[in-house]
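GDSL esterase/lipase
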Amino acid sequence: MRAAAALLLAAGVLCLVGGRAASASPDFDYPAAFNFGDSNSDTGGRIAAGFEPMPPPYGSTFFGAPSGRFSDGRLILDFLMDAMDMPFLNAYLDSLGAPNFRAGVNFAQAGCSITPASATSVSPFSFGLQIKQFFAFKEKVTRLLSQGDRYRRYIPQLDYFSKGLYMFDIGQNDLAGQFYSRTEDQVIASIPTILSEFETGLKALYDQGARKFWIHNTGPLGCLPQNIDLFGKDPTQLDELHCVAKHNRAAKIFNLQLHALCTKLRGQFSGANITYVDIYSIKYALIGNYSRYDLKVPPKHAVDTEGHP
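Structure:
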């Protein structure tokens, strides 16, 4: 799996916005990583915030117990950190067990959206709030470093904020949540507003010194078990992999506009490196060729013993 993560890193570089050729041996020597996202990369933030506990089988295949991740093992983020020879990122809100933030911090929260949370949101956290948490984290690190060496081994050095990798995997909840009450056309019409909010956050980070951006597009939402269970009753509404077609169409349009945004920002962010990673294609290929990866059933069919996704 470490090799697979390294391959994903290399693939991401080949997706570098703007079409410039990547070097044969790209440099992934980052002193720290700062992650923003939802359940795809939450390493304990939602649990630390006081939400419901996560019983087994969460965490059972790697950590031996629930680890705050919405997975029975590691997340893509964990494999990426491992491939870069960096420790797994601790959640920003997790203050138990003397967490070490020297190599970065994870602001991701399961259920989080790019747009501000509303009364009906799954989580009160949003991308904008994660950005504010980053500002608070950086300000506190600056203050602690000014007080001497006592905390230096637990927190990033100041130059890590400009040299570090800023990672993003967020947006699926903005799309998927709307399908419960809106039409496909209405969901698609909301995408520019969603990405405008995302752009605002990226610009705020750039203004704070961020220069290396690693941005995942959204995956095939129509292949998520919960969406197939709720929206996949009519076979005519499914695609060739038996995923919900309208969800995947919306995801593809979101990704096209996200790619265009990355291209635009690459021209505006002087000295920045923006890497756009096509997670959609990677996951869709995995689902379509699951047997090659020693999976007994397609990932979209993964459910618990009671038939719930």
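Residues 16-25, 303-309 have pLDDT under 50 and may be disordered.
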